[in-house]
Design goal:
Layout lengths: L16 E2 L6 E2 L19 H10 L9 H22 L47 H14 L4 E5 L6 E6 L5 H9 L1 H6 L4 E5 L5 E6 L2
Parallel strand pairs: 4-5
Antiparallel strand pairs: 1-2, 3-4, 5-6
Length: about 210
């Protein structure tokens, strides 16, 4: 076993070093020489060297932030390119085809005169001065109804009225209409144009022009 030289400390302790300026021996750790105040060379302590050698590990190397930023930029650029291609390349071409013009609608043909429904004329009021009395015409209709055994009350609907009013429980019977048709000419000559039949409760059953 080799004996430590003179001035050497126990194993594991720092060895003195000489000042490169004045040669005085200085314990490691001083940044300057205590005599000439010159800067002393620095060296890692034995403890630091042993920790570095004993650990034997280094910081794990891996991709830095710059690499990930670059990857993200490439991905964004690729996504933008795909969107532009999918949307038609960003050209000036219209997205949709122009709408087709509607087909012209043919004009409706004018109705022909023979197609028009004949508009019924207003009932013509007879001239009461033709010699037929309105009261006599009403009495004649009442007698005609009684002969047909259709009991009714016959009168005009009011003063200066052109409507014959019949009140009867037999407004729906054909015999009543037959009696009216038999006396229609006299009634028109007396100035009547309409005939109305109401039930005994005052409900109108029909109202029509004298024919």
């Amino acid at each position: 076993m080799t004996e430590p030289g003179p001035g050497a400390g126990p194993p594991g302790t720092a060895q003195p070093q000489s000042c490169p300026h004045c040669g005085v021996r200085v314990v490691p750790g001083y940044p300057k020489c205590p005599k000439c105040h010159g800067a002393l060379p620095t060296s890692p302590s034995p403890l630091a060297r042993r920790a570095s050698v004993a650990g034997g590990t280094a910081a794990a190397t891996g991709p830095g932030p710059a690499l990930w930023i670059g990857v993200a930029a490439v991905a964004i650029a690729a996504a933008v390119a795909v969107y532009v291609v999918a949307s038609g390349g960003g050209g000036d071409a219209p997205d949709t085809a122009p709408a087709a013009e509607p087909a012209p609608v043919p004009a409706a043909a004018a109705p022909r005169p023979e197609d028009l429904a004949a508009v019924p004329d207003e009932p013509a009021f007879a001239d009461a001065a033709a010699g037929v009395d309105d009261r006599a015409a009403l009495d004649a209709l009442s007698a005609e109804l009684a002969a047909a055994r259709v009991w009714s009350e016959v009168d005009s609907a009011g003063e200066d009225s052109h409507t014959v009013r019949i009140e009867s429980a037999h407004c729906d019977e054909p015999a009543l209409r037959a009696a009216i048709a038999a006396r229609a000419a006299d009634l028109r000559a007396a100035g009547f144009a309409l005939v109305t039949c109401v039930s005994q409760h005052g409900v109108e059953i029909f109202s029509e022009a004298l024919r």
